[in-house]
Structures are given as structure tokens and as C-alpha cells.
Amino acid sequence: MTPPPPRYPPFTSLNAPYPSPPNLLSLVAAAVSAIVKYNNYRPFPLRKKRHLSFYPMHPSPLHSPPLTFTSPDSLSSFLSPRLRDNSLATWGSVPGTKTIHNLYHEISQGETSLLLSDETLIRTVHVASINIRNSQGLVLVESKQLLSDGSVRERSRPLSEKMKPLESIEEAVARAVREELGESVVVEILDGSSNVRVEERESLSYPGLRARYVLHSVEAKVVQGIPEEGEFETEETGEDPFDITGEESEGKAVTVKRHYWKWADERDLKR
């Protein structure tokens, strides 16, 4: 008689080899892979992100500290032997230039940093530059300025304003619009339009002094308060004839009295 088949599979001998345990690194890799897929997150981007370089008003320890002065006279004494061809004498006397009182005020207010590196003087200024566009896509350009000494300074650039310490670009834009275009003017900054670049050249306001301009530029559109065609002019409301000591500097510091505006094609502006 044939015996019935066994109810259970044959018993495996204890001497049979067991499969090797999983590698610890492979378990960690599998767990990370599962987390990444779950969160739909790529920990190592395929494309390197762009980072904008900012140049703070107060330099890092890698830079020389900014220079400070107790009066316009002390600033003048420091600059006179360091500027070429006695260019300090042209400040305020050549149309379109500013005076030693203007530079002293900028340094005292933190709008300008004056650095001395390897016997080279550099004036560093952070500037908010606003490209305001009308409904036709034209850019608002300041064609010229009327100064307090009666001279006219050619500009041919968008609305610009020196930034104050720790001031954001949004705050600088709002102040520039209010002081140069008027209280009733409203513009809207376009999302993602902020950009920063650095330019170095000799200062037009202070001949003989090297300048580094850190330009914080944004795009904006007109909401209300600006004529969208033709030319117009506005009165400056942000500058006063007093320096930070409270001493009246009328006739010493050159201030802007009026701004003259026009709409221009961006391609003509670049040329």
C-alpha cells in the first residue's frame, strides 16, 4: 500500500545556509529614496541656483572700515592731498557737481561709505533704480535736474535714489516716488523684477573720486498720478538746506529743486 503524501513540506535542515542579512547602507538609501519620493523633493538640484552679490553699507572684516569725519573741514583736509590734479577745487564750482558739504552729509547719514584701500579712495553708494513703465511699455526717464545754484544737470536715467542704511528696496522705491514724483503718485513693483549689479567709475558729482555704485533695480508700472505721455516736471521735496549738525548749509550744499521727466524707449535709453 502506497503511503499518503506528507501534509507539510519537508523540514529544512538546520544546517542549510540562511540568506545574508541586508546591507545597512542599502537600507538607508532605500529609506531616503522613499522619503524623497513621498515629499516630491529633490535634495540635489540639477541646476545650480544663482545668488546675487550684495555689498553692505558697513563692510565685513575683510574690508577696511569706513572713514568717519567730524566736520566738512576735516573731510576736506583728508581729501585734498589724495585727489589728483586739485580736483577738489572743482567741487561745487563746475556746473553739475556737488560740494564738500554734500559728501559730508552723505557720509554722516550713512548714504555713502568712504573707504581707503591701498591708498585708493572709493565712495560706495547703494542706489535704488526704478524702471517705471506706462501702458505703451515706455520707461520714465529723468532728463535733467534744476539745482539750487541755478545750474542744470543732465541725467538721462530712470528714477534713482540713494538708499539709506538697512532700507529695503521697497522702502527706497516708495521714498523715491514720494520725494521726486509726488505724494499722489502710485506705482506697483512687478514680482520677480529685482536685480543687483555693481558699476565702478569716476563720480560725476565729485570729480576725481572713484565711485562704486551698487544698483538695486526693479521694474514697476504706473497705477495713478503720472501723465503717461509727453514731458512734465516735478518739485523735489526730500532735500533740505540743513546738514546733520543743524547748521544751515544754504549756499554750501547743492540741492535738487526740480526734476524734468519724459517717456523713452528702452532701446534708446540703453544706447
Automatic annotation (TrEMBL):
Residues 228-248 have a biased composition (Acidic residues). It comes from Rhynchospora pubera. This is Nudix hydrolase domain-containing protein. Residues 227-250 are annotated as: Disordered. The lineage of its organism: Eukaryota, Viridiplantae, Streptophyta, Embryophyta, Tracheophyta. It comes from the Eukaryota.
